[in-house]
Amino acid sequence: MLFELSEVGLTRGDRRVLDSLSATIPAGATAIVGPSGAGKSTLLRLLNRLVDPDAGTVAYRSRPLAEYEPLALRREVSLVPQLPALLEGTVESNLAYAAGLAGKELDPGRCLRLAGLDPDFAGRDVAKLSVGEQQRATLARALAQEPAVLLLDEPTSALDHAARDAIEATLAKLRRELEISIVLVSHDPEQARRLGDWVVKLELGRAIEAGPIEEVMA
Amino acid sequence: MTSIHLSPGQVAASLALVVLAAAISFWQKADLERDIGIATVRSFVQLTAIGYAIKLIFEADTLWLVFALLAVMVVFGALTARSRAKKVPGAFWPLLIALALAGATTLGLVVALGVFEPTARYLVPVGGMVIGNAMTASAVALNRLGDEMAESRPKIEATLALGATAQEAAAPFVRRALRSGMITLVDSTKTTGLIFFPGTMVGMLLAGASPTDAVRLQLILLYALLGSVAIAGLVATALAYRNFFTPAQQLREPGA
User: Fold this and answer.
1) Span B93-138, pLDDT tens digits
2) A15 contacts in B (CB within 8 Å)?
3) Is residue A46 assigned to a domain?
4) What residues 157-196 of chain B have any CB closer than 8 A to a CB of chain A?
5) What SS3 state is found at B209?
6) What is the CA radius of gyration of chain B?
7) Which residues in chain B are closer than 8 Å to A79, comparing Cβ atoms?
8) Is B59 exposed, middle or buried, given 0-12, 13-18 or 19+ CB atoms closer than 10 A?
9) C-beta of residue A40 within 8 angstroms of C-beta of residue A32
10) Rounded-to-integer distance, Cα A73 and Cα A145, Å
11) pLDDT tens figures, A125-162
12) What total of structural domains would you count in chain A?
């Protein structure tokens, strides 16, 4: 198993965000679905230790996450946030920053192509990109770290249909071309069906169902 | 230097300007009459009290009393600055350390370089100016840091998600905060002598000092203040940004 969550609990203020959540996430493509406020994004942030649970355990490749050094883990399990949050500068400077943190050689053209952007975007100022382009540049930045796992938080929520289809095609291509696992948060069951092989359904901070997509979403 | 003597009557006469200020506020409905009254009473009480305290310290002429007075200024400075940095968790200690270091380094350097003698007559007024300016600069810097960190949470977390350290993720915001803390004094130093005459120089000229001496002392103080403001801003921001993160390089929840 890629991730195993056991009796995970997390409280923020008075709110129980995750409540005795237990689930497994295998290698491949997993979709985390559920209504707003179900705890999907929080679950994703747990997986690369942007937050730690108050209770229970999360294991990555059978080893508790708490034993991983957070910075090294985040370079291997890379999270792409829901809204693009690039640093000031050019697309290439963002890619170089991420590659530098992970100690990887940067091939900007390859990263941009994988994310569905023309290599000419390298020199563009991120402030002048559309939201869809920024989302792809954020994905390219994550790919510059050559991660083993990509965590994607609603990667198409800010996009129109055409841009959404393009990102989905890009993700499908990534799966084919790279040995990379994807954990994707989506509020759209159809998108989960299109992109996932495995699904975890959340409700009120609990995993109410998990399994192969064709069985759970039948 | 000759000194001037002012009678209580002369001080009382200057209250005419306070009455004028209150009248303008009343006439223009600026609603500041009460604040002007409070400011006048407080300035009178506080300055009179500190005047007597300084008189005692000058007469005793022991460095321990000087350090005690400066330590009180540092603590009150940190408490005052903390009220301006409400969005920064645990801001008191960074501010206290920043003000203490700014005061100690600046005064230590000016004494070590032979600019001033290590006596109460120099250390008390210069220390007060240094700590006061350091307080303002670090309060502005931390106020800005709090705003920046609150507004930029998604960007900071996205940078942490790439495996950046808290220091790397916060660096652009720490830089901007430090800049805002320093910029006021840098700008006023640029225009000094052109647009305004700084207080020390005015005071010395009024007290009968030669313009050359007044200018030299003012320059020394301006340069000392630049140094203290930079030290205070740097130390306050460099310590305070850490309070936004956990040891596992995670962004703390607001209010946590």
Assistant:
1) 999 999 999 999 999 999 999 988 899 988 999 999 999 999 999 9
2) none
3) yes
4) 157-165, 168, 172
5) coil
6) 21
7) 158, 161
8) exposed
9) yes
10) 12
11) 999 999 889 988 999 999 999 999 999 999 888 777 87
12) 1
Beta carbons of B73 and B128 less than 8 angstroms apart: yes
| Interface-testing mutation among A45, A51, A143, with chain B (most B C-beta atoms within 10 A) | A51
CA distance A146 to chain B (A): 11
Question: What's the pLDDT tens digit per position in B34-90?
Answer: 999 999 999 999 999 988 988 998 888 788 999 999 999 999 999 999 998 999 999
B143 touches chain A (CB under 8 A): no
Query: How confident is residue B3, by pLDDT bands cut at 50, 70 and 90?
Result: low
Q: Is residue A68 part of a domain?
A: yes
Q: Please, are residues A77 and A148 in contact by the beta-carbon 8 Å criterion? A: yes
- Residue A32 · residue B231 · CB < 8 Å: no
Q: What would the two tokens of residue A175 be?
A: 């799966």
pLDDT of residue B2: 53
Yes or no: say if A150 and A183 are a contact pair by the CB < 8 Å rule. Answer: yes
Chain B residues touching residue A134 (CB < 8 angstroms): none
Calculate how close chain B gets to A69, using CA atoms only, in Å: 8
Q: How far apart are CA A145 and CA A7, in angstroms?
A: 31
Q: Is residue A105 part of a domain?
A: no
CB proximity A78 to B under 8 Å: yes
Give which of B148, B152, B162 to mutate to test A binding, by max A Cβ within 10 Å. B162
Poorest-pLDDT segment among A41-45, A165-169, B69-73, B136-140: A165-169
Give the domain range for residue A29: 3-85+147-216
Report the CATH number at residue A190: 3.40.50.300
Higher pLDDT, B71 or B2: B71
A100 belongs to a structural domain: no
Contact B163 A52 (CB under 8 A): no
ipTM of predicted assembly, 2 dp: 0.91
Contact B144, B88 (CB under 8 A): no
Contact B157 A74 (CB under 8 A): no
Q: How far is B237 from chain A (nearest CA, A)?
A: 21
Rounded to whole angstroms, the Cα distance separating A47 from B152 reads: 22
Burial of B147: CB neighbours in 10 Å, binned 0-12, 13-18, 19+: middle
Asked if A145 lies within 8 A of B163 by C-beta distance, the reply is: yes
